[in-house]
Design a protein that fits this description.
This protein is α+β, with helices and mostly antiparallel strands. It has 3 helices and 11 strands, in the order βαβββαβαββββββ. It has a 5-stranded mixed beta sheet with strand order 1-7-8-10-11. A 4-stranded antiparallel beta sheet has the order 2-9-6-4.
């Protein structure tokens, strides 16, 4: 059984919250009133707390990366969206297909370096407005669920973009656990309208996206808009 696992960043958040609670109980001013913070502290973002990951980005309508047998659809005939694909073997990696988009070589390198006897790569598709960039701020997981949190920032001024257009992104995240995809029954993802470094404690979920149950592994269809 895979033990419940959280990233180091989430662990630090919990420890910091516990210390803050103790300080609130013991601190007082000269009149005996309890001292309480007026707003949550801003937490410096530590990129090393997020598992190794790579991003692909493109303007195509189809998927950026997929397995050839990803053909399962919803009952209404529409392709499944935003459900992650779990890569657990070298055989899956060999069958993986990539569109001709930004980030492919870096993604292949991440997969090549993955030890699937002790690690799992999951693939998540996230659309983004053309003039914005996404940052992966936090990942937490257990044997039965996985959660990702993203930040969104304006792209550099020299990057050409269309205000009303949307791009596709695909994220390959290497989790340091040999997860069993059939046991993962819950998946959630959130996005903040600020960068990872501007997120406050606890992490905000301005636009939460949840799925109570993830179907069979690799259920994202080839028609996903990634």
């Amino acid at each position: 059984m895979v033990p419940s696992k959280l990233t180091r960043r989430r662990t630090l958040l919990g420890a910091a919250g516990a210390l803050a609670a103790l300080a609130g109980c013991s601190g007082s001013d000269s009149s005996g009133d309890r001292v309480t913070p007026t707003e949550p502290a801003r937490e410096p973002f530590d990129p090393e707390s997020v598992p190794p990951h790579r991003r692909l980005r493109g303007t195509i309508d189809g998927p950026l990366v997929w397995l050839p047998d990803e053909t399962q659809t919803e009952t209404n005939g529409e392709p499944r969206r935003r459900t992650p694909t779990f890569l657990t073997s070298r055989d899956q990696v060999d069958r993986l297909r990539f569109a001709d988009v930004e980030g492919v070589e870096a993604a292949r390198a991440l997969l090549k370096e993955t030890a699937f006897d002790s690690e799992t790569v999951f693939l998540e598709r996230v659309p983004v407005p053309s003039c914005y960039e996404l940052q992966l701020c936090d990942v937490s997981w257990s044997a039965t669920d996985i959660d990702t949190q993203f930040g969104r920032v304006v792209r550099d001024a020299d990057v050409a973009c269309e205000h009303d257009a949307r791009d596709s992104t695909a994220w390959l995240v290497r989790v340091p656990e040999a997860l069993d995809p059939e046991r993962i029954t819950s998946y959630s993802s959130g996005m903040s309208g600020s960068s990872c470094g501007e997120r406050r404690r606890p992490p905000e979920r301005e636009h939460p996206i949840t799925a109570d149950a993830v179907p069979a592994p690799n259920a994202t269809a080839e028609g996903d808009d990634a």
